[in-house]
Amino acid sequence: MTSPHVPVTVIGLGPMGRAMIRRLLAGGHPVTVWNRTPSRADGVVADGAVLAPTPRSALEAAELVVLSLTDYAAMDAILDGAADALAGRTLVNLSSDTPDRTREAAAWAAAHGAAFLAGGMMTPAPTVGTDDAYAYYSGPRDVFDRHAEVLGELAAPRYVGADAGLAQLLYQAQLDVFLTALSALMHATALVGSAGVPARDFLPEALTTLADVPAMLTSDGGTPEGLGEQIDAGLHPGDLSTAAMMGATADHLVAASAAAGIDVGLPRAVQDHYRRAIAAGHGGDGWTRIVDGIRDPR
Ligand SMILES: NC(=O)c1ccc[n+]([C@@H]2O[C@H](COP(=O)([O-])OP(=O)(O)OC[C@H]3O[C@@H](n4cnc5c(N)ncnc54)[C@H](OP(=O)(O)O)[C@@H]3O)[C@@H](O)[C@H]2O)c1
Q1: CB-hemisphere CA count at 13 Å for 129?
Q2: Residue to substitute in 18, 34, 40, 68 for testing ligand 1 pocket (most ligand atoms within 8 angstroms of CB)
Q3: Most buried among 1, 22, 184, 206, by the most CB within 10 A?
Q4: How many helices (H) and strands (E) would you count in the chain?
């Protein structure tokens, strides 16, 4: 369903900002944009957006202001000089940063009379507005409810609580999974590449392993929720594989990487997780036992 035509200002015209603008324009919303590098607006202006000459005039064009920037420092750089134009507006910051930095920004916005929602878009730019897209939001519930319909045109909104840092924490946790998996793929590619195996041959096989991970992970718990319940209960059954076995493999991966002359930072971090579990006497437990040493690295 398309919500009534609500004017929206979008600040930040990277791939994500531009994808959101196109979706809003397709929904019939008047969209005003601003970007540090104005030429990046050419495409969306051709599609119907209006380029504001200054951040202040961009703020003044709509009550709902969406920010899509590299980080929160970029928001400061853009809005500090126009903070007196914030009163009565809603800032929806969909930029990445730490939860604490996000909470500071929420307080800063409140001090200038603006409502603030933090969000994390859990979708790549090309799938904005599709059924696959969702986004975490946190901040005041009434502010979320007021804008959920328009924001829902970008990605299915998942409200996670009043604490502005919470949506950011969930976003970062998801990026933890995503970025670590991407680095693992490139580390493995470098490892086989050291013996002349081309990435073109290896990557399809590596992706098969990645696709098998969910079934492997849930073989103990039955479902992701079941596995999570076991972890929450401190249960780490080792009947299918043990931390000791995984730790031995992690040792081999570090040694193989060192012998190949490639970076060992990532496999050493993994090795540390298993070594801590084994040193604490949990070598016979399942791999999920490593969560203890990650929670408390002392
Ligand atoms: N791209 C994706 O698929 C994707 C997916 C999920 C979430 N996200 C999140 O969405 C946000 C935007 O992503 P993106 O890919 O569109 O990022 P991007 O290409 O890095 O765009 C960043 C935007 O921030 C602006 N910017 C950065 N530093 C600035 C500064 N100091 N002062 C003023 N403007 C500044 C850039 O302006 P200029 O054009 O002048 O450089 C640009 O408009 C990020 O937080 C990202 O984590 C992106």
Answers
A1: 17
A2: 68
A3: 22
A4: 12, 8
